[in-house]
Automatic annotation (TrEMBL):
Occurrences of domain Major facilitator superfamily (MFS) profile (ranges): 1-431
The entry's keywords: Membrane, Transmembrane, Transmembrane helix, Transport
Database matches in PANTHER family: MAJOR FACILITATOR SUPERFAMILY MULTIDRUG TRANSPORTER MFSC
Membrane topology: Multi-pass membrane protein
Stretches that traverse the bilayer: 20-42, 49-74, 80-98, 110-131, 137-158, 170-191, 197-217, 237-262, 274-295, 307-325, 331-359, 371-393, 405-426
SUPFAM superfamilies per record: MFS general substrate transporter
Pfam families xrefs: MFS_1
Name of the protein in question: Major facilitator superfamily (MFS) profile domain-containing protein
One annotated GO molecular function: transmembrane transporter activity
Location(s), subcellular: Cell membrane
Assigned GO CC terms: plasma membrane
Principal subcellular localization: membrane
Amino acid sequence: MILPALSLIQQGIGATPAQAGWIISAMALAGGVATPVVGRLADVRDRRVVFLGVLAIVCAGIALAGLASSVAVFAVGQGLQGVGIGLVPLAVGIVRDTEPPEKLRRTNGLLVGGMAVANAGGVLLAGPILAVLSYPWLYWIALMVLVPLMVLAVLVMPSYPPAVRGRVDWTGAVLLGIGLVALLLGVTFVASTGWTSAPVLGLGAVAVVALAVFVAVERRVVEPLVDLRLGGRTVTIVHVTAFAAGVASTVLMIAVPTIVAAPAATGYGLGSTPVVTGLIMFPLGVLGAIVSPLAGRLERLVGSRTVMVLSGVLFLVAGLVMVAGRSDAVVLAVGAGLVGVGVGLGLTQGVNIIALTLPADRVASVSGVAYVLRAVGQAVGAQVAATVMALELTPGMQLPSWNAITWAFLGASAVGAVVAAASFGLPARLASSR
């Protein structure tokens, strides 16, 4: 629901155009670090306890963001909410344990489709709510839904004890956190200091070192946070697709509200309301919801490789369509729909590949890696899009030029091209480990 409210939130917390990226990326950044931890806990601890603990943290983050009046406090609240991204691999692990193979693809599709339905409903509800209430009410309404659900979970959710107990690699979690924070902070400084400035280069160096040490540690420890040795090339391609889905969808989340809210004097702005933003973004969620449960059926018709190639091609085409959608809400909505279909197909097929080809005791944690990379893609996409759009402003306005927005969209297209090319390395058909 915060996407149509992006410009209102930016004004309410006093965020600059470059800082606006943190409205999205703080949640994605925290999710990137927390998701492998939650996924690992789901493999070695009672999943009911993990579920309830994560949901409690999310509720605290929602309350903090709703009360925030500064960028720093708001970012912390968003970050706490990002821990909830870890609920996805937890759900995938439960599905893998409880569903037979013939129902696994459909159920995973329903999980991804459920998230798409939530996205579609959120952007549609936000506009009418913001027409009569201030943006903090988006958070209070979310709490009104989540708190009763948490009480219900306490009452009805059964225990899911692990088959074996293990440990969580907290060293890996710290290294991953340092690397991601340094990377995103460095991108944030680009708009004000340039790509070759000391803060950008210094933070970039810290990110490279921390992430390199993280990879080295994960390859050595007995029980890694992220097992980089599982799945080989096939799982690597799934992870590339998950990262791309995060980048492509988040560039859209940053650029579209800017285009809608900007005045016509910019040469591209629609000068409209959050309701229009919601209508433009609606196809992303609803089409994603429709195609996600159908990904398994499409895979049986054309093969796993073709589904993933198609996902990348859709991202590529969507970016080009968005460039053509200058001041045209209908064309922008078509681009959003293409992204939704690409995300729905790519993520669902990726989850299916992991669930059907890996051992059951690693499905949650390896699925977590995919959602970590999606979260990292969202964080990187948000910061890069916000930074690129802040590099060239419309004369006399604190708004990005159309040229800057075009480069953001073309970047999303380039990511789609990489996914399509990488997906040719997948096997034509899946062979289940069962």
